[in-house]
Description:
Radius of gyration: 18 Å
Shape: globular
Largest sheet: 8 strands, mixed
Distance between the termini: 27 Å
Amino acid sequence: MAEYHDHFYQSEDGLQLHARIYEAAGSSALSVVCLPGLTRNARDFHDLAIFLSSSAKPGRRVVVFEYRGRGQSQWDADSTHYNVATEAKDVLVGLDGLAIPRAAFIGTSRGGLIIHVLAALRPDILGPIVLNDIGPVIEPEGLVQIRDYLSTAPRPGSFNEAETVQRKIHGAAFPSLSDEDWRRFVRAIYRDDAGRPVPDFDSALINGLWAFDPAKPMPDLWAQFDLLAAKPLLTIRGTNSRLLSQATVEEMARRHPGMEIELVAGQGHAPLLETADLPARITKFLTRKS
């Protein structure tokens, strides 16, 4: 049986959007919806999705969305549509088309922000939630780092060169990654264009980051986070993260006393969810909470 199948659907404004679906034959367990980061795609969740659908007991159907302008989803001619509110609505359209009224959600970075928006738009669709290195407050330092990286990242000519580039950029924040981890990381970031690595997103995504002024206070999502108070919640933080601070995690725990916390040593923003025994940890959380 194929590991996954592709699902295409249409957004409200007519774009063709894509999701990967990993089936779990005969399982009645709550489905899992995976939401990637800003420029990322479904490959980020491949190993975790295989584990949750095939190895974990019970197996779960896993749906991994690719937002407009990423992966196999169509690019948007209007880059102002690359925003969390629009992407949250796109996810809801996809879930409605798949007849999924409620699911567990795993959101990495941007995906976690989308979960906050879903809490305001349609809270009943949210079952247990895993936030991967994201919370209601984004540290300006981390956002500047992401913007600068995306704006100046070199274009490698081979996957070996791409691995060297990524180790140079991110190695200090991710000293715990193995050679195999780096290889998977690179294959997730880039699509393979006849052996040449190509960034798998619309470069216009970066436009929205230039409006950010690190000298001004950033808006937060505490009001939306507070809507998650009754939801089972696991927050994962890389100990080297510059986007999610330990202080923010502590305030999240104060507001949501039932929140579970998993710190991932030797990783920054955002921890690779197939490493550090995270698949087993996530499975245990989902089994107890759904």
